[in-house]
Amino acid sequence: MINLKDFRKKTEEDLKKEFKSIEKELQKVTSDTFQKKEKNVRKVRNMRKDLARILTLINEKKKGILKIGEANLKEREKQVLEKKEVKVNEDEKILSKQIEKKENSKEKKIRKKRKVNK
Fold it and tell me: How far apart are CA 51 and CA 105, in angstroms?
């Protein structure tokens, strides 16, 4: 199992190299498992999970998502809050449209009743 703290410090190229080496090792371990040379069957599963972790780190680095640093967290919080404000504005528009529809339908019902009573 890999140590994520150490891997987070590595560059994207180093992570890709590590990914390729683990991938080759995984192929070897898989074939050894089928040939019953490898007794630890869970080793394949753990290696696949390690590969997934490394891919996640590579994608985080590509997208600029950092898990370290308070400044980055504050920046992320600002982005989230901005998105929420936009969503709130959209929700308000939707609600106002729904209210208008209800009011219009009420007015129509009242008009129909008046016509029927006349």
Answer: 58
C-alpha distances in Å from residue 114, one per residue of 38, 80, 102: 86, 51, 19
Distance in angstroms (rounded) separating the CA atoms of residues 8 and 55: 12
DSSP per-residue letters across 86-103: HHHHHHHHHHHHHHHHHH
Q: What is the Cα–Cα distance from 26 to 2, expressed in whole angstroms?
A: 14
Q: What is the pLDDT of residues 10-30, one digit of tens each?
A: 888 999 999 999 999 999 999
Mean pLDDT check: name the lowest of 31-40, 49-58, 69-78: 69-78
The answer to whether 58 touches 66, Cβ cutoff 8 Å, is no
Domain residue extents for the chain: 1-68, 69-118
Residue 70 has pLDDT above 50, yes or no: no
